[in-house]
Amino acid sequence: MSMTVKKGDTVVVIAGKDKGKKGKVLEVFPKDNRVIVDGVNIVSKHKKARTQQEQSAIIKKTAPIDASNVMVVCGVCGKATRIAHREIDGKKVRACKKCSASLDKEYVKQTKKEAKKNVKAEAKADTEKKAEPKKTQARTSKTAEKAKTAEKTVKTEVKTPAKTTKTATKTTTKSGAKSTTQKSNAKKSEN
Question: In this structure, which CATH number among 2.30.30.30, 2.60.40.420, 2.40.10.120, 3.90.230.10 belongs to the domain 1-45+57-73?
C-alpha cells in the first residue's frame, strides 16, 4: 500500500488524544499504515532491572499512530492539506490541494512561485468575504438599536394619603399598541 505521508514531513494530528499537535514524521511503516510523529502518542514503558547494576525505570517514548489520523502541513501556505498527485518533468510528485505547491523537496522550487500567487489570490478572496458579513451585522445591530429606542416604558404612580406606591408598569411600542402589564413587587396599600 502506498502512503502519502513520508519521513521528514511536518504533519498535524487530526484525531485521537493528541488532536491539534504538530510534529515531524520520524518513521513510516507502510505495511501497517502507521507513522511515528515526534512528540505525539507518548507512552510509558516500565523497565525492570535485570541485574544488580541496572536500575528500574519508567521510560517515555513515542508510539506509532495510524497514518489516517494525520494530515500533511504545506510548507508554502502553512495549512493542513490533503495530497494531490501531479506530474512534473515526467515524475509523479505530491502537491498541496489548497495552493498547488509541491510537497516533495526536489520539486519545491519549481512550484513555489505558482503556489505563492495562488495563496495571495485566496487571501484577497477571503478578506472580501469577511468584509461582507460585517456590513450585514452592522445593519442588523442598527435595526435592533432603533427597536430599543422605539419602546418606551411608562410607569404609573397612584398617590394614597399615607404612601406613594408603584402599582403597574406598562410597555408601549412606537405603533401605540399596549403590551403586557406587569405588576410591581411593591405592596398595595389597603383602603
Answer: 2.30.30.30
Q: Is 121 helix (H, G, I), strand (E, B) or coil?
A: helix
User: Would you say residue 188 has pLDDT above 60?
Assistant: no
Give dist(CA 190, CA 142) in Å, integer.
46
Phi and psi angles of residue 151, each rounded to the nearest 5 degrees, phi first:
-80, 130
Examine the pLDDT at 152 and tell me if it is beyond 70.
no
- The torsion defined by the Cα of 143, 146, 152 and 153, in degrees rounded to 10, comes to 60
Locate cell 403586557: which residue?
Answer: 180
Report CA 68 to chain centroid distance, whole Å. Answer: 20
